[in-house]
């Protein structure tokens, strides 16, 4: 074999603490190595050209690059060697940046370790065999999980691109958090007016199938061919008959149900239609509050329904959909702010969340858009906004910034003044984070034009003063004085957390999540909507805090990724998969049971049970190869021979 | 039932009524308080303000005396004493600190020292709310009270391990069981101004004033206390607080043990009520004999809507 | 003092010295992560003594972060802190701020920076009585304090009521442990004196 070795400097990233020239000099002495060099930037165009040139001029049939993590650039270099006529699997990569130069300062030790890693890569390459990818057909349909603004955008873009969409929404209506908002920053345009048409487009698009009030039960398969089981949670209303006329909601006698859509600022009926622009505009019975479903005689809704849609015997049902790609857009929830005893643990009615305040200001909300205090229905004149409640609070395990609270608080302060001319708003903040287009100007407007007092400091305590107002104890760190404000209403900018059930969904999707339950993108800068599971993409706040424009942009980005994936009829399979040596297989079936992808089946070979790998389903994880007691299953490109050769090489050094 | 007992200096002086009522209530509940012999002052705020070592040596001597008397739990009515005792136990976990403390003592303190608790918590552990209600002779029905815990019962939270540090409810549970209406009192753990009544009077007058003002605004008949220093600031120094706030409160600030004692049918003399500077006469007049639950009032199995 | 422009360079650590800077020293003594304070002001917002402070708690934390030893240790606030620990309970960075304040108080005392002498006098009066009697003796403390502070009318307004209600013990209560407590104080004074001598000796070297 004729092997070429390239020891990358990566500027000073590697060369700063590794003697690259010395590593190359040593590598030149390794078995089968006929050429070794140390370029400045191997991944750059001249670097790749040098590899191609070396392959031709030195008649190389294998290449080792010692540089960074293979996560980013292994595909790059495989393409490079392929362009020069080699099989892409006749290439090995040694990670001497993340595993060496970035983690130690001792040049001598680093150089030695880098040399050893190169030695292993060379030895593995010597045992490599050319591998050929297979083409397999794909299902050109996409599943979108979550019907907030990010999911809606992804759904519309995919459907407009000709891809059939299955949209699954947990709530009874799509629209997500944005549908609850009154106005949006920095333009103060009506949220429902800009989101509403998009929601209608979803309902009317011939290529979009919407499952509302539904959740993902199970997912199997792989990129190009996923099978998804959807649980249609019971609504007790046959939606094929429900016309959304609302007669039932008018007549329902159980009028003290918690109103989730309106954030509990007023009670509602047990049967509801979330809001006038709901998509789908269908009724749902809240089982916890329905008299009939709690053993009492009622069924008023069933009596008044003109289409006979009420069905108290309805149960959850299941649907299976086959798709080739998945976009996750599950959004966020507010953290449980009632853990804060100093803000009353939730027992003071006039201390509310910012999302509840949106419903108070919203014309479609329970107060018809009149800002009133929940306790006594009076118009508040002194309104205190508290930022960072449950954000940037390491003491409760939430060190992260929720991203958009600064902006919506400025908007709410402006709207408060618009609604109540003789009101005064105060905003307690730690920092004003307004880096978007026209954002900082907006927060300035809240202060300069609307007279909002911004006070830099946290609030230590909020409590009723016994005379109808709330006492807010805060600090003005700029003045260096503690301050006290008598407030009629306190609005808490409650921090966000990953949507409930996000972790469980991630397990089903086999994608990663961070310590707080937000889904992990494949690369923090360069693959912001990809995940580490091929064919699964992210959009919106489920990946991390972001505002509406950023969520919409990500929805479109995820859709672009889906359309790119589906631009072909078939996909190339990864040839680095498990292979069974039938002679050795004893048919014990352990591999069938341990495979997380269901990629191994049992088949009869000359009357004997043998394991067989389904090439398109195998993800090459290697679990079966470690489990097989006979060593009958080997992972192509990482066989026992490969690994032993590496170990031997290391021991000989 | 027996409980090793550290009364603290106030018990023998400014809070003799706390001591009397604590002893009387515990006796009525069948718990004997066994005062550790020859105890000394915990050092209070001045000792730890000057040196953690001095404070811990003073406390360690008491913990050692209790250990040698065979106690594995030591109760004190005073939150300040409790805080110093607990802080000492915590600091003594560090071997080098323990060595320094031992060097200040006549003899090294016992290896295993008793756990410490407040009389209030010990009472709640030993006597259930049902038992408490059963033993009551008078009802507190009609009384509107606020419970005031002060700083040290619950802070520092990790050290004191007392209820929800922002909203302790133990006194509320006890007094509710006896029929009182307990008002939500957001300043229940706010600071009264502590020992600064002497060197920096405004600190104490304003803080106590703020607490009394909220209690008065809420319409409380009394503010129920559990700390000798807080009680002094809210009661003996109430006139100073009134001056600072520019309004009159006339709000009694009895110890919780005095209220419990009244419900248990103990005499005002046994409870030292005469020592309260702001008198409780109006409140006493509201007490009614406890009524046995009538058959008609027994909860019915099904309430129609 | 408060209006003086602070030179921050002088507080920079020198390269050839391994001695901890002021911030590190306070962090070590208080066992608190001073550097995590991000100046939200929550400690000051809930502080019941804040209205009497010359430097707010968060400003003291800032002074420590910037190694402004003199500024931090000269703050009157150190002596007005009520020790209620509301700051510690509500700190979003879980810093036990009250413990930092106590540590600074100890350091200030060691450097004889006692900026509110009446408070220290009150404490020492209390401790003197304690040393003599083993338990606190309220009238004794008051008399000693009035003499030390020359505030001869302190709480005179309360005396009639306090005496009438027998709130103040006129005589110290005696008990067998008083001698043992006296010995604790004597040994403590010796150990303080010794550590002072050690410090002076090491600074001479």
Name the descriptors.
heterotrimer, A: 653 residues, alpha/beta, Alpha-Beta Plaits, 18 helices, 28% helix, B: 305 residues, Rossmann fold, 2 domains, 4-stranded parallel β-sheet, 3-stranded parallel β-sheet, 14 helices, 9 strands, 44% helix, globular
The multimeric state of the shown protein is heterotrimer
- Counted beta strands of chain A: 32
CATH superfamily of the largest domain in chain C: Alpha-helical ferredoxin
- Helix percentage range of chain A: 25-40%
The total number of structural domains of chain A is 5
- The unreliable regions of chain C are none
Counting helices, strands and paired strands, the structural category of chain A is alpha/beta
Describe the protein:
Chain A is built from 18 helices and 32 strands. Chain A folds into five domains: 3-126, Rossmann fold (3-Layer(aba) Sandwich); 146-224 and 322-331 and 505-565, FAD/NAD(P)-binding domain (3-Layer(bba) Sandwich); 234-315, Alpha-Beta Plaits; 334-497, FAD/NAD(P)-binding domain; 578-636, Alpha-Beta Plaits (2-Layer Sandwich). The model of chain A has no long low-confidence stretch (mean pLDDT 96). Chain A has 653 residues and is α/β, with parallel strands linked by helices. In chain A, the strands form eleven sheets. A five-stranded parallel beta sheet of chain A has the order 10-7-6-16-27, with helices on one face. In chain A, strands 18-25-19-20-21 form a five-stranded parallel beta sheet. Chain B has 305 residues and is α/β, with parallel strands linked by helices. Chain B has 14 helices and nine strands. Chain B has helices spanning 16-28, 44-50, 52-68, 79-91, 95-104, 119-126, 129-135, 157-160, 170-177, 201-217, 228-234, 238-245, 256-263, 281-286; strands at 2-5, 32-35, 73-76, 115-118, 138-139, 144-147, 181-182, 222-224, 288-289. In chain B, the strands form three sheets. Chain B has a four-stranded parallel beta sheet with strand order 2-1-3-4, with helices on both faces. Chain B is globular. The model of chain B is unreliable at 295-305 (pLDDT under 50). With 205 residues, chain C is mainly alpha-helical. Chain C folds into two domains: 21-110, Alpha-helical ferredoxin (Fumarate Reductase Iron-sulfur Protein, Chain B, domain 2, Orthogonal Bundle); 116-170 and 178-185, no CATH class. Chain C is 55% helix and 0% strand. Chain C has eleven helices and no strands. Chain C starts with 21 loop residues before the first helix and ends with a helix. Chains B and C meet through helix 2, helix 3, helix 5 and helix 10 of B and helix 6, helix 7, helix 8, helix 9 and helix 11 of C.
């Amino acid at each position: 074999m004729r092997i070429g070795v390239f020891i990358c400097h990566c500027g000073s990233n590697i060369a700063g603490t590794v003697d690259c020239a010395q590593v190359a000099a040593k590598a030149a002495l390794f078995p089968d190595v006929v050429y070794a060099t140390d370029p400045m930037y191997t991944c750059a165009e001249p670097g790749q050209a040098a590899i191609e040139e070396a392959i031709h001029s030195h008649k190389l049939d294998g290449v080792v690059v010692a540089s960074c993590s293979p996560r980013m650039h292994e595909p790059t270099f495989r393409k490079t060697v392929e362009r020069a006529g080699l099989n892409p699997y006749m290439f090995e990569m040694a990670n001497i940046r993340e595993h060496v130069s970035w983690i130690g300062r001792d040049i001598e030790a680093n150089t030695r370790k880098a040399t050893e890693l190169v030695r292993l890569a060379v030895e593995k390459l010597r045992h490599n065999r050319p591998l050929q990818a297979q083409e397999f057909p794909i299902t050109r349909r996409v599943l979108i999980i979550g019907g907030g603004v990010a999911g809606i955008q992804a759904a519309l873009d995919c459907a407009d691109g000709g891809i059939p969409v299955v949209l699954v929404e947990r709530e009874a209506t799509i629209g997500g958090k944005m549908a609850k908002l009154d106005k949006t920053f920095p333009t103060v345009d009506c949220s429902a007016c800009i989101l509403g048409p998009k929601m209608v487009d979803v309902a009317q698009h011939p290529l979009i199938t919407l499952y509302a009030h539904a959740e993902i039960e199970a997912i199997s398969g792989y990129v190009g061919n996923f099978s998804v089981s959807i649980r249609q949670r019971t609504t007790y209303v046959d939606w094929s008959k429900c016309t959304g006329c609302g007669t039932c909601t008018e007549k329902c006698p159980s009028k003290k149900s918690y109103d989730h859509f309106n954030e509990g600022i007023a009670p509602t009926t047990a049967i509801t239609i979330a809001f006038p622009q709901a998509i789908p505009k269908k009724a749902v019975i809240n089982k916890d509050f329905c008299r009939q479903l709690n053993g009492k005689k009622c069924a008023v809704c069933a009596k008044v329904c003109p289409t006979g849609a009420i069905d108290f015997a309805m149960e959850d049902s299941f649907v299976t959909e086959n798709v080739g790609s998945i976009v996750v857009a599950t959004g966020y929830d507010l953290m449980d702010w009632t853990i804060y005893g100093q803000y009353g643990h939730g027992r003071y009615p006039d201390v509310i969340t910012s999302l509840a305040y949106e419903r108070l200001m919203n014309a479609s909300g329970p107060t018809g858009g009149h800002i009133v205090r929940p306790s006594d229905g009076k118009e508040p004149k002194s309104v205190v906004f508290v930022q960072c409640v449950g954000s940037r609070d390491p003491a409760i395990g939430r060190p992260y910034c929720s991203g958009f609270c600064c902006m919506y608080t400025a908007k709410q302060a402006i709207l408060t003044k618009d609604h109540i001319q003789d009101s005064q708003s105060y905003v307690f903040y730690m920092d004003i984070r307004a880096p978007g287009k026209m954002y900082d100007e907006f927060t300035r407007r809240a202060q300069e034009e609307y007279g909002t007092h911004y006070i830099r400091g946290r609030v230590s305590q909020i409590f009723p003063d016994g005379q109808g107002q709330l006492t807010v104890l805060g600090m003005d760190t700029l003045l260096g004085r503690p301050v006290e404000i008598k407030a009629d209403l306190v609005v808490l900018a409650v921090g966000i957390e990953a949507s409930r059930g996000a972790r469980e969904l991630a397990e089903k999707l086999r994608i990663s999540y961070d310590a707080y339950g937000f889904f992990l993108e494949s690369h923090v800068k360069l693959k912001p909507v990809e995940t580490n599971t091929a064919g699964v993409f992210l959009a919106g706040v489920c990946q991390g805090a972001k505002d509406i424009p950023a969520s919409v942009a990500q929805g479109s980005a995820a859709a672009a990724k889906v359309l790119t994936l589906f631009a072909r009829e078939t996909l190339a399979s990864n040839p680095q998969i498990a292979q069974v040596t039938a002679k050795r297989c004893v048919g014990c079936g352990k591999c069938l049971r341990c495979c997380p992808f269901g990629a191994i089946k049992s088949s009869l070979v000359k009357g004997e049970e043998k394991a067989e790998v389904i090439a398109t389903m195998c993800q090459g994880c290697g679990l079966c190869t470690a489990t097989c007691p006979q060593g009958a299953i080997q992972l192509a490109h990482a066989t026992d021979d490969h690994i032993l050769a590496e170990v031997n090489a290391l021991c000989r050094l | 039932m027996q409980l090793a007992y550290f009364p603290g200096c106030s018990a023998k002086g400014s809070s003799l009524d706390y001591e009397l009522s604590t002893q009387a209530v515990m006796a009525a509940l069948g718990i004997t308080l066994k005062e550790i012999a020859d105890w000394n002052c915990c050092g209070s705020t001045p000792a730890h303000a000057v040196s953690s070592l001095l404070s811990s040596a003073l406390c360690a001597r008491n913990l050692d005396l209790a250990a040698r008397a065979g106690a594995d739990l030591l109760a004190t009515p005073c939150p300040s004493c409790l805080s110093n005792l607990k802080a000492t136990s915590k600091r003594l976990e560090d071997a080098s600190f323990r060595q320094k403390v031992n060097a200040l003592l006549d003899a090294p303190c016992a290896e295993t020292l008793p756990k410490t608790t407040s009389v209030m918590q010990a009472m709640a552990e030993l006597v259930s709310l049902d038992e408490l209600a059963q033993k009551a002779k008078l009802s507190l029905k009609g009384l509107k009270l606020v419970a005031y815990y002060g700083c040290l019962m619950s802070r520092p939270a990790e050290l004191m391990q007392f209820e929800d540090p922002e909203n302790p409810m133990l006194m509320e549970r006890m007094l509710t069981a006896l029929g009182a209406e307990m008002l939500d009192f957001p300043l229940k753990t706010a600071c009264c101004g502590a020992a600064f009544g002497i060197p920096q009077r405004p600190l104490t007058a304003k803080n106590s004033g703020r607490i009394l003002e909220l209690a008065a605004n809420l319409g409380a008949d009394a503010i129920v206390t559990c700390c000798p220093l807080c009680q002094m600031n809210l009661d003996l120094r109430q006139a100073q607080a009134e001056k600072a706030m520019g309004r009159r409160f006339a709000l009694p600030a009895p110890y919780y043990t005095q209220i419990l004692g009244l419900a248990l049918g103990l005499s005002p003399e046994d409870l030292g009520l005469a020592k309260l500077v702001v008198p409780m006469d109006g409140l006493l007049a509201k007490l009614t004999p406890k009524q046995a639950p009538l058959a008609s009032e027994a909860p019915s199995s099904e309430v129609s809507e | 003092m408060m209006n003086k422009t602070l030179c921050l360079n002088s507080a920079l650590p020198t390269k050839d010295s391994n001695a901890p800077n002021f911030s590190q020293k306070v962090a070590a003594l208080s066992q608190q992560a001073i550097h995590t304070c991000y100046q939200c002001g929550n400690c000051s917002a809930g502080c019941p003594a804040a209205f009497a402070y010359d430097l707010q708690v968060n400003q003291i934390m800032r002074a420590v972060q910037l190694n402004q030893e003199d500024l931090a240790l000269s703050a009157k606030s150190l002596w007005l802190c009520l020790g209620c620990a509301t700051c510690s309970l509500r700190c979003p960075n879980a810093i036990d701020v009250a413990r930092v304040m106590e540590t600074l108080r100890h350091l200030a005392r060691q450097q004889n920076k006692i900026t509110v002498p009446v408070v220290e006098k009150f404490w020492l009066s209390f401790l003197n009585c304690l040393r003599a009697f083993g338990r606190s003796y309220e009238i004794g403390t008051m008399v000693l304090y009035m003499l030390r502070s020359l505030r001869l009318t302190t709480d005179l307004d309360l005396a009639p009521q306090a005496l009438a209600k027998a709130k103040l013990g006129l005589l110290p209560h005696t008990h067998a442990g008083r001698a043992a407590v006296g010995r604790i104080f004597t040994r403590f004074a010796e150990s303080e004196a010794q550590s002072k001598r050690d410090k002076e000796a090491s600074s001479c070297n």
